[in-house]
């Protein structure tokens, strides 16, 4: 524990202005929620609203909205869609031996979870939170610029048995986004979104002894509102898709 504290302490030695904008994972496992969605899909807005209203509960739920691009052909090009998100969804679908990708799809801790709008979701999150975390994370936003977040991340997987095939992923997101859709299945609707992933980086390997200290800039969208933005880090097993720990840090005002 002392070596970890020293490791994270060195990483998080930020200037006074940035030192306040930091977070670390707790003694519980946070539940990573990935919503695969598209503005071209008329069944997606209810899932988008559900994710926006998802209570984060002291960091116990880490929500992300990943917009896929395979609906763009239908007439409306989703401005937040990325091919990388479609590729990730397909890869995780293959790992779970599912027959096809679909939207809206919710992955809970890396696994397909179709009962996201029911009490079963809260029960599943509570079970995840009750688990002892198998990874430790710290995040700090050292600087907030108009076009980017300067982010520092520390990750550790203490148990050697958990280190095989694990990687760190880092994402920048923005809240309070909206689009006036003029074509496709949602033509004439104004759609609102939160936790929309703008930048995705990883997988980043954790070298022995299962630790990584990382510094990088995460670009934001043109005309982004930095104070509505934030960063997420999580450790995931690339072979099984199991999420060992996740952490979210909204950009701090001022």
List the secondary-structure elements in sequence, H or E. Answer: HHEEHEHEEHEEEEEEEEE
Q: How do the strands of the widest beta sheet line up side by side?
A: 1-6-7-12
End-to-end Cα distance, whole Å, is: 33 Å
Range of helix content: 10-25%
Total discrete domains: 1
Strand content bin: 35-45%
Helix vs. strand class? alpha+beta
Task: Specify the number of helices.
Answer: 5
* Radius of gyration from the alpha-carbon trace, in angstroms: 18 Å
Low-pLDDT runs:
1-7, 12-18
Main β sheet profile: 4 strands, antiparallel
The average pLDDT score comes to 91
How many runs of DSSP E, i.e. beta strands? 14
What does this entry show, briefly?
The chain is of the alpha+beta class and 254 residues long. 18% of the residues lie in helices and 37% in strands. A hairpin with a 3-residue loop joins strand 6 (136-144) and strand 7 (148-156).
Give structural notes.
- It contains five helices and 14 strands.
- The chain is of the alpha+beta class and about 250 residues long.
- It has one domain.
- A four-stranded antiparallel sheet has the order 1-6-7-12. The chain has a four-stranded mixed sheet with strand order 3-2-4-5, sandwiched between helices.
């Amino acid at each position: 524990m002392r070596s970890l504290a020293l490791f994270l302490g060195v990483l998080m030695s930020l200037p006074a202005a940035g030192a306040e904008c930091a977070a670390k994972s707790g003694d519980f496992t946070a539940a990573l929620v990935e919503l695969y969605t598209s503005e071209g899909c008329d069944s997606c807005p209810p899932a988008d609203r559900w994710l926006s209203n998802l209570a984060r509960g002291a960091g116990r739920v880490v929500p992300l909205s990943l917009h896929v691009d395979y609906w763009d052909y239908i007439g409306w090009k989703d401005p937040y869609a990325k091919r990388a998100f479609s590729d990730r969804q397909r890869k995780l679908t293959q790992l779970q031996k599912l027959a096809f990708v679909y939207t809206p799809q919710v992955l809970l801790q890396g696994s397909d979870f179709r009962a996201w709008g029911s009490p079963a979701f809260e029960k599943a999150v509570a079970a995840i939170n009750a688990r002892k975390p198998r990874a430790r994370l710290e995040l700090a936003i050292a600087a907030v610029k108009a076009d980017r977040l300067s982010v520092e991340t520390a990750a550790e997987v203490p148990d050697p048995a958990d280190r095989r095939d694990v990687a760190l992923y880092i994402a920048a997101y923005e809240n309070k986004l909206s689009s006036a859709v003029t074509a496709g299945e949602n033509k004439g609707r104004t759609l609102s979104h939160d936790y929309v992933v703008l930048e995705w980086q990883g997988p980043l390997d954790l070298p022995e002894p299962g630790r990584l200290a990382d510094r990088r800039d995460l670009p934001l969208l043109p005309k982004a509102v930095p104070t509505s933005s934030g960063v997420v880090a999580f450790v995931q097993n690339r072979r099984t898709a199991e999420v060992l720990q996740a952490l979210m840090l909204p950009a701090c005002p001022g």
